[in-house]
Structure formats: C-alpha cells, structure tokens
Amino acid sequence: MCNSMIKSRQGHFATVDGRRVLQPTCNRVVVPPTSKDLVTLKKPVPKTITASMRLSPPISPKILRKSVKGSDEKPLSSPKLASSTKPIVRKNSNGLSISGAISLESSMNSSSSSSSSIDLKVPGSIAAARREEAMLTQARRKMRIAHYGRTKAKVAPIVVDQFPLEAVNTRLEKRCSFITSNSDPIYVAYHDEEWGVPVHDDNMLFELLVLAGAQVGSDWATVLKKRNDFRMAFSGFDPEIVSRFSERQIVSVSAQYRIDLGKVRGIVDNANRILDVQSEFGSLNAYLWGFVNHKPIATQYKSCRKIPVKTSKSESISKELVKRGFRYVGPTVVHSFMQAAGLTNDHLVTCPRHLHCSSSLSSPS
C-alpha cells in the first residue's frame, strides 16, 4: 500500500481501453485543450467610461463563466433582466440628473451604445416649463395689445339728415351719472328742472335750506316725496309766520308730520335768524349770494366721483351762519344747499343741464 502511494506520487493515471492505468511521469502526453475546457476571459476594461457603461448594472460572474462558442455567437443574457428595464437616476459633478432605462443586453454589448435611452434634464424641469409657458403667453399678449392707443378708432359718422336734431343731441349728451334707469322719477324731474338752477326768492331759499338739512341721513328722493308735507307744516316757509310758532305748535307739527322735534325747533330758530339777516342786508338772497359775488360757481367735473361733499367755500359760509345763530348748517349741508340753490353748478360737463345752469345769471337784489 505504501509502495502504491509512492508510485502514485511519481506517476499519473491514464485511460487505456476504458481502464485507468498508472504510468510514469515521463510517459505523460500533453493533450491539447478542447473548446469545452476553455474559460471565457473577462472583457478588457476600457480606459474611458461612457454614460451607458456607467449606468449598466453589474454582471453576474456566473454569466461570464459560460463560454462563448465562436465569435459570431451573441453573449448570453438573463431572461429576467433582459425583459425588464429599471430607470436609474444619477447626478454628475455639474448637478445634472441622468435618467434612463438601460437593458442588460445593450449594456453587455459595448459596441451598441445607442440602444440605451439617456435623457438629460435640468432639476425642477416641470416648474421651468411652466415658467417658460407663462413667459410665452405674456409675450403673445404683449404682441396682441401692442397696437392699443396707436391706431385711431373708427367712428361711424352720424348722418343728421336721418334723425331729428333733438334725438341726436339726446344721444350725444347724457345726464349726470348719479341719475340711472332705476332712479326715482321725482328725483329725475328735480335734477332736470330745479337742481343747479339759481334761486333768488327768500322763501324758496329758506325751503331749500330746510330740505338740505332734512336729507342728512336719508336721500333726496325721500325728502322730495315729503316736500308738500314740509310746506304745509311750515306755512309755505314764510319766515315771519314760522318765527311766531309757539311750543304747542312745534309739538303739534312734529307729531302730525312725523318730523323730529329737535329739527322743528331748529327750523323755527332759523326763521328768526333769517328775519335778522333781512333787517341787516335787505334780503336773504343778497346775503347768501354775496358769498359767491352774485355769480354761480362754474365747475368742470367729468365724473361724479370728483364732486366733493364739501368745499372751502361751503366751510366759510357755514362758519358765518353758525356765528349768526343758524342751526343744522354744517359744511356738508351748506354745500348741498349751494348745489340745490344754484350757487354752484355741479352738473357734469356731459350733462345737458350744465350749459343751461351756467348761462343762467343771478339777478341783483
């Protein structure tokens, strides 16, 4: 047994006629290796690594050990990996994200680098696309409105022969914008006939002063509907009669016509102050119109938003009236009274009443 072990170490076994025969080492015959005994060499690693090779998944060593028969045969690929593709995202040194789906078959074939789909995009590409779309929309809008204000509007000429002159004037001229289609007819009639027309009668001036104070906290349409009640309650606004009202009459007027008791007392006090003015200046008309030099104040308002609720002139008149003992004559009330009595023409320039009220001159007392 020991001799056989020594011989086995000094020789080798060979197969002769299907049997294993121990032979000396010198009789060993070197058999050239067959294709089956060849081991597939690993592919040389290229010096430059492309993006497709960088993104390819690692190849299993088991696949590399399988021999490739002939140069024309295609490399083996795993059916699972070849059929499925997974997106891979990497970031390079410049901050760009590289996303793509690369198959295992295309990664093993170094010559076919075009088969891998690589898409380079900037981070936040959705927001960038939206910003670009908004910029394009804005640019198109600018081009669309670039001609605004540069081309003359085409206005069709109005043929006067086909329409009466009054109809043409009505279409071209409009009332003040606070008169609308929903305005009360009594208010529209007041605007078209009385508002802004110069008034020189003392009783009428007294009436307008009372109505201007009564419309505070209300509106002109409501006050105009109660205008006849005011005239009946205060005897046609005769200062001499109103100044002699007793306390019993004041309470009766307040209860009968539903007028605030304090306002009724204020109207009676104002009637006494008017008598003082008449004795000093001759008439209330001369006193009030003297503040505007006996000529209406002409304004050139193009919008009702520009019309103020009070002016420096109404404030100065209000101070003088308060000094004389008048009540309910604040700057806003005085300015409303000036508009109603024609001391100021606040009709809009587009209103047909503006020219009519401007041509009306106050007559000297």
TrEMBL record:
GO terms for molecular function: DNA-3-methyladenine glycosylase activity; metal ion binding. Pfam families: Adenine_glyco. Zn(2+) binds at residues 176, 191, 347, 351. Residues 60-88 are annotated as: Disordered. Gene3D superfamilies: Hypothetical protein, domain 2 (1.10.340.30). Keywords: Metal-binding, Zinc. GO terms for biological process: base-excision repair. PANTHER family: DNA GLYCOSYLASE SUPERFAMILY PROTEIN, OS04G0501200 PROTEIN. This is DNA-3-methyladenine glycosylase I.
